[in-house]
Design a protein that fits this description.
alpha+beta, 29 strands, 607 residues, five-stranded mixed beta sheet
């Protein structure tokens, strides 16, 4: 029986010109996505996947230290290349017109492999710790940039070759060096290849301009090319409890993966111990600065004319009412989802912003209190005299434990709207809670000093869990990149609506966890891998479609028959269990520093 994919392949892609790329994507195919085949060859966990530009071939790298070349659409293994790395492979890339391969591994080496002869052409030993990711440039696949847990990104030109220095100063090919950070991920901008995004063992994503960087020795420092920094705003304001815990043990979230979308205008980051975030590369709003926020600051904001009213179309009004029903039965996750769907259509609705802010406050997941604060600020920019928006802002500040600022705003609120705790039960409860926190000596958090000019997120995706490994990816998916997808610690991989942040689909992708999710660049095909020793290929599965069919088959989600919402709630509980990925990574990195790089052994779980 032929699948959609084979029919499309036979009809349009025999010459592989990529002409069917856009036409191949459709919601119909997405709804029928299911497991097509399992590719077996590796003898260990598969840690990295890479499609070629045309989407015909796929590379995989594994703990077994081999690189496999596949023709997935034909379910064929074309080559098994021994890398002769000393440790697990974490990155593979096509180079030299896809005739050769670059691999990076836990032994700190970057290797240049030939596909035809399955031989090692070069081995570069510049890095002092594990190499986690390598990238090439869209317009020059001879230039390779590697990133490592030694905090450096190094540049190699395979046309020139490279001989490692035997001196103490190290090799003079260091492009970026971060102090006190491991670099976990690096990628180049597909449209502006001089831009590089870097994800490290802290929570700030960085974008560099390669034109302003120079190659230096390993001991040097090179940060002059840093253009932008990105940070989820709530991480700029850790609570006092979090600060004390950080001093003792917890180091905060870190970025396991970062990548640009195909337009190069947006940056996606998967954060260990946290959520997934989308940033506008050039035009994003800065992180909310609570240090300069005052009761007058909001009142003086200029009113923005609203093109939308609170008169919703019938469908949106029904979704809003659905959100209200979920909220009234304390199903705050579904309430947030419903209000977000409405806001995608009516972004200037103060009512919806206030409703979602309240649902965020009640749900209370990581970053929710700050998200509620952001909604209240947007609502007040649309209507500076909106009483409910002012109240939501004060509630958000109290939830973030900024009680002194909340108390100041409460006084302003009472004067502005002639409200008193004596006659308003909700105001009295909030007043008493804020006053009690201050009287009990609860200190306002200290904002971080490294957040100046950091850009805040434009999208936030929750429901998965990223606590156990530091190589979990997140990628864009769909004809207009309208979906976000990522793996999870709970053996599933997830799809979100990029614009509403709604969890759309969940698939079981592994017996333990899913790390890698790589979409084919032209077809509705996805390759995934995790702790199993296989690569799984996903595509639309059924007979050649009758496009009049209006009830496509739902995919089997998991063996336990848990609902999507149960999976989401269970994952969030895992995230909140204070068993953070960064603590694990900190211990691991400390151990690596104590051991001889040639002697330590890596396993699937930590990487």
């Amino acid at each position: 029986m032929k699948t959609h994919l084979h029919a499309l392949y036979e009809r349009q892609l025999k010459n592989w010109d990529g002409g069917a790329s856009k036409r191949a994507w459709a919601d119909y195919f997405f709804n029928k996505l299911n497991l097509e085949t399992t590719l077996k060859c590796h003898g260990g966990c598969v840690n990295c996947l890479q499609w070629c530009k045309a989407g015909r071939y796929l590379l995989s790298g594994s703990d077994d230290k081999n690189v496999c070349l596949w023709e997935p659409l034909e379910h064929k293994l074309l080559a098994r290349i021994p890398s002769h790395h000393g440790e697990n492979i974490f990155s593979v890339k096509f180079v030299n017109k896809e005739k050769q391969v670059i691999s990076g591994a836990g032994d700190g080496e970057v290797r240049h492999l030939d596909i035809a002869s399955t031989s090692v052409l070069s081995a570069w030993r510049c890095h002092r710790h594990r190499v986690k990711r390598c990238c090439t440039l869209e317009d020059d696949d001879n230039l390779v940039i590697s990133s490592s847990e030694d905090g450096t990104a190094r540049q190699f030109d395979i046309r020139e070759g490279h001989t490692c220095s035997s001196t103490d100063s190290g090799c003079s090919n260091t492009l970026i060096r971060l102090a006190n950070c491991s670099i976990k991920s690096i990628n180049s901008n597909p449209m502006r290849t001089h831009l590089l995004c870097v994800g490290a063992s802290d929570d700030i994503a960085r974008v560099y301009d390669r034109r302003y960087l120079s190659l230096t020795h390993a001991g040097g420092s090179n940060s002059t090319g840093e253009l932008y920094r990105y940070l989820p705003g709530h991480l700029a304001y850790p609570t006092v409890d979090e600060q004390e815990e950080e001093n003792r043990f917890y180091t905060g979230p870190s970025i396991t993966w970062c990548t640009f979308d195909p337009t190069g205008n947006f940056l996606l980051c998967n954060m260990g111990g946290e959520q997934i975030y989308l940033y506008d590369v050039k035009d994003g709003e800065k992180v909310v600065n609570l240090e300069i926020m005052s009761s007058e600051a909001v009142e003086d904001q200029q009113t923005i004319s609203s093109t939308q009213t609170d008169e919703f179309d019938t469908k949106t009004a029904a979704i809003k009412e659905e959100g209200n029903r979920h909220y009234n039965v304390s199903d705050f996750q579904r309430a947030v989802t419903a209000y977000s769907k409405c806001l995608a259509l009516y972004p200037n609705s103060v009512v919806l912003l206030n409703n979602r802010a309240q649902a965020y406050l009640k749900r209370g997941w990581k970053g929710d209190h700050y998200a509620a604060l952001r909604d209240s600020i947007i609502a007040l920019s649309l209507d500076p005299n909106n009483e409910k928006a002012h109240f939501r802002q004060i509630q958000s500040l109290h939830a973030m434990k900024y009680n002194k600022l909340a108390k100041t705003k409460l006084k302003t609120f009472q004067n502005k709207f002639s409200r008193t705790p004596a006659t308003d039960p909700a105001l009295k409860t909030l007043w008493d809670n804020v006053s009690s926190a201050i009287e009990n000596g609860q200190k306002d958090p200290q904002s971080r000093t490294d957040i100046l000019d950091c850009v805040d997120y434009t999208g936030r995706y929750t429901g998965h869990c990223n606590c156990k490994t530091d190589i979990k990816e997140a990628n864009f998916f769909g004809p207009d990149q309208e979906y976000i997808m990522a793996g999870s610690d709970d053996k599933h991989f997830f799809f979100w609506d990029r614009h509403t942040s709604q969890v759309l689909k969940v698939y079981k992708g592994d017996h333990s966890l899913v790390n890698c999710v790589q979409p084919n660049p032209h077809l509705p095909v996805i390759a995934t891998s995790g702790l199993e020793k296989v690569v799984k290929l996903w595509s639309p599965q059924s007979n050649i479609p009758d496009l009049s069919e209006d009830a496509p088959r739902e995919p089997l989600m998991n063996d336990d028959e848990m609902s999507l919402w149960e999976i989401v709630m269970k994952n969030q509980a895992m995230m909140d269990s204070r068993e953070p990925f960064p603590t694990f990574a900190m211990i691991q990195n400390a151990m690596l520093g104590m051991l001889d790089p040639d002697s330590f052994q890596n396993s699937c779980n930590p990487s």
